[in-house]
Design a protein that fits this description.
- This protein has 215 residues and is mainly α.
- It folds into two domains: 103 residues, Cyclin-like (Cyclin A, domain 1), CATH 1.10.472.10; 82 residues.
- The longest helix is centred in the middle third of the chain and has 19 residues.
- The mean pLDDT is 82.
- Keywords: Cell cycle, Cell division, Cyclin.
- InterPro entries: Cyclin (IPR039361), Cyclin-like_dom (IPR013763), Cyclin-like_sf (IPR036915), Cyclin_A/B-like (IPR046965), Cyclin_C-dom (IPR004367), Cyclin_N (IPR006671).
- Belongs to the cyclin family. Cyclin AB subfamily.
- Pfam families: Cyclin_C (PF02984), Cyclin_N (PF00134).
C-alpha cells in the first residue's frame, strides 16, 4: 500500500526530541530555495522532502544535523531524477562538510534499502489538474500554476503527513478549482474533484479538512 512508502505522520512526537514542526518547515523552505538556485526541477524538491521525512520518522536528529540530512536528501533526489551528475562538494555550506554529507547519504540510502522511489503529491497532481482542465474549459494555465503553488505550500505543513499524497493532490485541485470558479458549487455530482475523491476513498469532510491545512 502507499502507506508503506510514507513517513510517520506523528514522528515529531514519537521519534524526535529536538526537531519541531516549525524547524522542519524552516529547513524545507531552505531546500526549496536551494533547489531553485541550483536549477533543479520540482520533482527533485518533493522527493527531497519525502526522504527527509522518512529519515526523521526513523532516526532521532539533533538541531545541528537537520540541515545535513536535508542536503543529503537533495543529493539523492538529484541523482534519482537524473540531473547533471551532482558533486557533493557543491552541496557543502558553512554548516557541513563533504564527508558529513556523504555519510548521511549512505545512512539514508541504507534506510531506504536503496529503493529511492517514493510517492509524492507530484505523482498525482499533474494528471489530476489536467483532468480538471479537460472537464472545465474555462480553467486556464494559471489554474495549473495555482495548483503547483498550493502544492508547494503543503510541503511546509507537517500536518499534511496525515494524508496520503493522492488525497493531498485531489484536495489541491479542489482548492484551486474553488479559487478560480467560486461561483460553482464544489460538490456537484459530475465535478472532477468529487470523482477523484471517490476513486481514492476520500469522504467530503476529510477533503475539506485537508484543504484547511494548506495556508
Amino acid at each position: 500500500s502507499k502507506r508503506e512508502f510514507l513517513p510517520l505522520h506523528d514522528y515529531v512526537a514519537r521519534v524526535q526530541k529536538h526537531i519541531t514542526a516549525e524547524k522542519r518547515a524552516l529547513v524545507v523552505n531552505k531546500v526549496a530555495r536551494l533547489t531553485e538556485n541550483l536549477g533543479y526541477n520540482t520533482l527533485c524538491l518533493y522527493l527531497s522532502v519525502g526522504y527527509l521525512d522518512i529519515y526523521l520518522s526513523s532516526k532521532e536528529v539533533h538541531d545541528g544535523d537537520l540541515q545535513i540530512v536535508a542536503v543529503a536528501s537533495l543529493l539523492i533526489a538529484s541523482k534519482y531524477v537524473g540531473l547533471k551528475a551532482p558533486n557533493a562538494k557543491q552541496f557543502c555550506f558553512d554548516f557541513c562538510t563533504t564527508q558529513q554529507i556523504l555519510e548521511l547519504e549512505t545512512k539514508l540510502l541504507q534506510l531506504l534499502q536503496y529503493d529511492i522511489w517514493t510517492p509524492t503529491v507530484m505523482t498525482f497532481l499533474g494528471s489530476f489538474s489536467r483532468a480538471a482542465q479537460v472537464q472545465c474549459k474555462a480553467l486556464s494555465s494559471s489554474f495549473i500554476f495555482c495548483c503547483y503553488y498550493f502544492a508547494e505550500l503543503s510541503l511546509l505543513e507537517y500536518e499534511m503527513l496525515r494524508f496520503v499524497p493522492s488525497k493531498v493532490a485531489a484536495a489541491i485541485v479542489f482548492l484551486a478549482s474553488v479559487t478560480f470558479q467560486p461561483e460553482k458549487h464544489p460538490w456537484v455530482r459530475n465535478n472532477i474533484c468529487i470523482c477523484l475523491f471517490r476513486v481514492f476513498y476520500t469522504k467530503n469532510p476529510e477533503v475539506k479538512g485537508t484543504c484547511k491545512i494548506i495556508p
